[in-house]
Amino acid sequence: MEKPADVTALLRELTKGNPEAGPKLIPLVYDELRRLANGYMRRERTGHTLQATALVHEAYLKLLDQHSVEWQNRAHFFAIAAQVMRRVLIDHARGRVREKRGGGAEAVPLDKALVFSPGRSEEFLELDSALERLTALDPRQAKIVEMRFFGGLTVEETAEVLGISPKTVKRDWTVAKAWLHGELKTSYGSTAEQVGNR
């Protein structure tokens, strides 16, 4: 069972460069990383899913490679994990769109482990584009969307990572959902509904 204090202690050791911290951290965070990955997978069309295990492994390797991050605590780790998973999916979706448009790009090694819905790649990229526009308008709201929608963090965990009150998270979350819903509704109704229903 994961203990936040143990995770935080290992993250601090990782920040100090202790090579033994990474392997000890895996069993403590793996189930939660799987939960995050499964959250991404639920947004995919039935029968066309990205394998959660491949996403977890790719994200974990990238997380351990984050040498410039000074890990604060468990919530901070999972907030960054949500960002990393999103980036992996965006990169993969961009590759699929390039293939669809005849780019002739070589398959990314991750493709061997993933089954992704090509039909949803453009939709996923539009969501990413909408989040970039929201970031330009209100960076904090964009972070909240990333942590809540993509990362599955609770209101309290999001508040802890951002150093704001849960009430502020709830207010910004409501405003951001409404804004994204409006941005995505005309082009991609299903994604807009998913954001609005979280």
Structural commentary:
The chain has 198 residues and is mainly α. The protein contains 9 helices and no strands. 72% of the residues lie in helices and 0% in strands. Mean pLDDT is 75; it is low at 104-118.
Mean pLDDT: 75
Quaternary state of this entry equals single chain
Largest sheet: none
Gross morphology: globular
Terminal CA distance reads: 27 Å
Computed structural class: mainly alpha
Q: β content, as a range?
A: under 5%
Gyration radius, rounded? 17 Å
How many helices? The count is: 9
Number of strands: 0
Residues in helices, as a percent range: over 70%
Order of helices and strands: HHHHHHHHH
Number of domains as seen in the coordinates: 1
Pick out the low-confidence regions: 104-118
Short description:
With 198 residues, this protein is mainly α.
List keywords for this structure.
mainly alpha, 9 helices, globular
Please render the helix and strand layout as text.
Elements: H1 4-15, H2 21-42, H3 52-64, H4 74-100, H5 118-137, H6 139-150, H7 155-162, H8 166-185, H9 189-196
Helix pairs in contact: 1-2, 2-3, 2-4, 3-4, 4-5, 5-6, 5-8, 6-8, 7-8, 8-9
